[in-house]
Amino acid sequence: MEGPIVGVVDEAGKHIEPPPPEVVEPDPDLTPEEAEQARKDYLLTRFWISARGFWGKSGDRLAWVFSVALLLMIVANVAFQYGINVWNRAIFDAIEKRDAASVFHLTGVFFPLAIGSVLLGVAQVYGRMGIQRRWRAWLTNSVVSRWLTNGRYYQLNLVGGDHKNPEYRIAEDLRIATDSPVDFVSGVIAAFLSATTFIVVLWTIGGALTLTVGGSAVTIPGFLVIAAIVYAAIASGSITVIGRRFVQISEDKNQAEAEYRYALTRVRENGESIALLGGEEEERDGIDKTFGHVLKQWARLAGQHMRTTLVSQGSSLIAPVVPLLLCAPKFLDGSMSLGQVMQAASAFTIVQSAFGWLVDNYPRLADWNACARRIASLMMSLDGLERAELGDGIGRIKRGETTGETMLSLHDLSVTLDDGTAVVGDAEVKIESGERLLVAGESGTGKSTLVRAIAGLWPWGGGSVNFHPDRRLFMLPQKPYVPSGTLRRAAAYPAASEDWTVEQIGEALDKVGLGHLKEKIEEDAPWDQTLSGGEKQRLAFARLFLHRPDIIVLDEATSALDAKSQDKMMELLTKELPNATVVSVAHRVELEAFHSRKIVLERRKGGAKLVSDIDLIPRKGKRRLLGRFLRQRKPARSAA
């Protein structure tokens, strides 16, 4: 669990993102069940730590305007309710007396009251939903910003914690987590004001009720008020007992829905591989099993709704009848007029509705509880990554700058998992301008992890990765990302598609062997599904030639190409960007011909070690390509 969080303002008055809450270790005397419950209880606190910022200095500038306006409209709406309640008494008294003039007059009075109440209701909806919309936008912006900063969206896949399906939490859970509190607060305020106002009405109209019990007269002061409170206590108590497991069931249902959606998304994202392997039946079994779990959770939720509906529906039917029965003796003995009876019945119903607010909203309250906990769990996982970036807990790889002609250096670099388990240890490497370094080693020695650490995607470890301060880095992964939209956008990514002309992009596609797609540059199509693995890797090289970076990191970037195409692509890279510094991870021996240097990682106890660092010797024929494009090599280094 974690402690409180405080915002910071710099000297210029600009808000600075506050640091993540500090970790507070749970009480060691707690049982595992108690510790888990304490963690769940804290999740709501963690949600409010961030969510309340909407009304703070860095919050929405109209937050308080909307909030105060909504409060005023709620007060005015209760005033109109009271006016209609008084009108209710007057009209029935006039009808009882057969006073036609008063009936016509009161009929004219009713319409302004009704119109005013309706307009206030509409304005109240606008104000309430305005707060909900702006609060959701503000908090979504905050969470998404934290999620996308420093590659945390990627790092969440590498660390443990309750943050599965973050996209669902941000899109759906956060919506409910910001919608429901506004409804709850406005509902509670309206219920409190209504109950207070109409309890006075009930006390004034109903007065005392005298009953004869065993020959003795018993007087009950404010009997209608007591009846309303007792009735509401029974209804609310029943719903509390019946719905005590509502929160957990709602949370389980939301988690099941998220997992089902994730399973469907996985099929879409990996459609080609599934189709080629004929895995439809196996995928269908997995989807059916996940969907079965969803249906099971919905069945549990349906049972809870049925039980709460039994109370709420019964309460709504009985509530209007109770005051009529209670007032009947006083009406029959002439101590109450018909108008007073109808006013009392209306007031009783309003008070009962106010007291029974929990009955009507407990399911939504439970759903909000579950959603707020899920979004708070994501926040806590992001807190952990932020604390690690600030140097707390597990060691972090430092990022620095090189001097002179050194483009990239690894100083005493060690790479670990997020729990501190060593992957690569004590790497010491300097890469000069124009060098082309090949990282080799058996599978599982941490080559790709080392490359991710160099690119800044893998933060855990020690030592430092240093870059030349005036150079740009560009990484080509084994599976290139192809965004939705036009081919032009896919080729220009991550820059804007307008940064290059159609002719320039077409020329880049021609170079990498995708000239047949030039006519489709402006076509909006599912290119991620359309292009083959080899075409995606060629597209990645086209991006590279458009961006023309100074430092290039290749992680198995030609693994989907045949040997001939690979040689052509690497030769093209050497020709197009002869001065670029290249760091490659690859298994194919043939790639040595396109690199000036090779380091080899070998698995050892305590993490993989750098066991050799050598200059590559030029070979005959086409393997002498580097001689034409690269600077003269340095003498061979001794093995590390």
Describe this structure in words.
Helices cover 57% and strands 13% of the residues. The chain is of the alpha/beta class and 640 residues long. The chain has two domains: 357 residues, ABC transporter type 1, transmembrane domain (ABC transporter transmembrane region fold, Up-down Bundle); 170 residues, P-loop containing nucleotide triphosphate hydrolases (Rossmann fold, 3-Layer(aba) Sandwich). The strands form four sheets. It has a six-stranded mixed sheet, sandwiched between helices. Helix 5 packs antiparallel against helix 11 and helix 6 packs antiparallel against helix 9. The longest helix is centred in the first third of the chain and has 49 residues. The N terminus and C terminus are likely disordered.
List keywords for this structure.
single chain, about 650 residues, alpha/beta, ABC transporter transmembrane region fold, Rossmann fold, 2 domains, six-stranded mixed beta sheet, four-stranded mixed beta sheet, 19 helices, elongated, disordered N terminus, disordered C terminus, Sigma_54_int_dom_ATP-bd_1, ATP hydrolysis activity, ATP binding, transmembrane
